[in-house]
Specification:
single chain, mainly alpha, Methane Monooxygenase Hydroxylase, Chain G, domain 1, 85% helix, 0% strand, globular
């Protein structure tokens, strides 16, 4: 009986890794879009395709949950994990689209820095999920994700303060405040994923 269930468990863990790898792909596309900013529309379209792929992976995990009697850990935690990963990618897509919709001529250094923080966080989340099945030695991943969230919070606050001090065009101020807010929300949501991984690990350690 135990041997029959092991492949099911591994399939779940593999899907979590696939999901995180897809989110990481989206995060890297966003950072590349902002660093080069040569074809923002094309980059945003690539990120939309990545988001659609994320929906497919989430649906696959959902169908597997419905069909599996014994899951590797609590169903509510599985749903929370895939939902939070989806939210990270949704926010990445929204941020990318905002640069196109608002016709931003060039990204700011702050936006590039925020995108780089998101990539670092998702790299850590992906690595944590690669090792999740052992439920051990994952603390360093969520600790670093938390540290990066604090760093991102400071970056965003300083940037918004500068906006209100230096930006004379009201429309530009509103656009950039929205973009910084979206990128900060993405960083916050990545921390939520880390919190879920921490909760799962503590339950099963």
């Amino acid at each position: 009986m135990r041997l029959r269930l092991i492949p099911r468990d591994e399939q779940f863990f593999d899907l979590f890794v696939d999901d995180a790898a897809n989110v990481l792909g989206g995060a890297r596309l966003l950072e590349a879009m902002l660093r080069t900013y040569d074809q923002p529309e094309a980059r945003a379209a690539e990120i939309r395709a990545t988001e659609h792929r994320g929906d497919e992976i989430s649906h696959e995990i959902g169908h597997r949950l419905e069909a599996t009697f014994v899951t590797p850990f609590d169903r509510e935690d599985i749903y929370a994990l895939i939902s939070a990963l989806d939210d990270v990618l949704d926010l990445i897509e929204e941020a990318a689209d905002s640069f196109v919709l608002y016709r931003i001529e060039a990204p700011s250094a702050t936006a590039v820095e925020q995108a780089a923080i998101i990539v670092k966080q998702v790299e850590l989340l992906h690595e944590a999920l690669v090792h999740l099945s052992g439920f051990r030695d994952l603390e360093r991943y969520w600790i670093e994700v938390h540290r990066l969230e604090n760093e991102g919070d400071q970056v965003a606050r300083a940037a918004i303060a500068r906006l209100f001090h230096e930006e004379t065009d009201a429309i530009s101020l509103v656009k950039w405040k929205e973009i910084y807010g979206l990128l900060e929300a993405t960083i916050d949501k990545a921390e939520d994923v880390a919190n879920i991984i921490e909760r799962i690990t503590i339950k099963h350690a």
